[in-house]
Every structure is written in structure tokens, then in C-alpha cells.
Amino acid sequence: MQMNDSQRIPAAKEKVWAALNDPEVLKQCITGCQNLEMSSPTEMTATVVFKVGPVKATFGGKVTLSDLDPPNGYRIFGEGSGGVAGFAKGGASVRLESESADVTILHYEVDAQVGGKLAQLGGRLIDSTAKKLAGEFFTSFAAVVSGTTEAPAEPTGKTSWLGKLTGTG
User: Which helix (H) or strand (E) holds 57?
Assistant: First the structure.
């Protein structure tokens, strides 16, 4: 699966860069993230509850940052296992571009692979879920970084769009 997109964030490039490297900000913005800790300046460990169609699992994984070019961008690689649900691994190139003194364009190119039960669900469901999760992350990230609102830290208990679509939520 490959995804390329960009997000306009109403904040200075240095502030966006700092937030991209702040585990607390990232934890707030990643849907289903239960734990995110920085184990070194270039490595993080995470626990995320993830649901795609009928498959729900808790993934534990490791994220590594490389090709750091502060405050312009980096390469991020992660891999995680969800037990019988399968695995996910992939990387992304993140590049920050100043549109003005207080607006940053965040460009990203993602390449990911899934295996196990997740892979059996089909490419369309996985791709649409990945795009939806990326959209949720960047909407929350932009809100937190710009200070317009805080991202929800806990699920609201409402049925997600995917749950409504599949009838499982």
C-alpha cells in the first residue's frame, strides 16, 4: 500500500518539527494509541489498538527515525505485531515546507505492508482504513500543534465510521 499526501498546518515549521518529535503530542493524535514512549532520540515503542473490519488487535511495535534533517524532515520506519491478527510494517518520508512564517505544509509518502488476517481482508478495506486513520491523525495533529483544540485523548464510545460501515461497531 502506498499513500502520498500533504497537510496544511497553521503553525511555524519549527513548532511542527518539535511536535513531530514529541511522544505526548503523537500519542494524542494516533487513533487507538495506548502507549508511546521514546527509548532514544531516534526510537520509540508503541502500543496501539487497531480495528479493520472484523479484525481487532493490540499491536506492539517499534518506530525508528532516520535521515534526520531538522526542522525539514525525516524518514520514519515502524513495525508491529498484533498476534494472530498479523503484522504491519512500513515507512514514511516526512518533509516540512514553510508556506509562510506561521503556516507549514507537511508532505508525506507512505509505503506499508500488512500480513496475517489483516492481509486477508482485501486491499480496498485496508487502503481506505489507512487513509481514514492518516486523515484523523493529521486533523488532530494540526489542531494540537496550532493550539485550536486538543485531540481527544480517549475514545468517545460512539460507533466509528468503519463500525457503522461494517456493522461491527
Answer: strand 55-69
Residue 158 to residues 26, 163, 169, Cα–Cα distance (Å): 22, 10, 8
> What domains lie within the chain, and their CATH numbers?
2-150 (3.30.530.20)
CA 103 to chain centroid, in Å, comes to: 21
State the pLDDT at residue 97.
98
**Residues facing 46 on adjacent strands:** 36, 61
Task: List all residues 6 or more positions away from 40 whose beta carbon is below 8 Å from its beta carbon.
Answer: none
Give the max Cα distance, the chain: 47
C-alpha grid cell, residue 121: 481482508
CB neighbours of 25 closer than 8 A, spacing ≥ 6? 19, 141, 144, 145
pTM for this prediction: 0.80
For residue 64 the three cell numbers come to 525508528
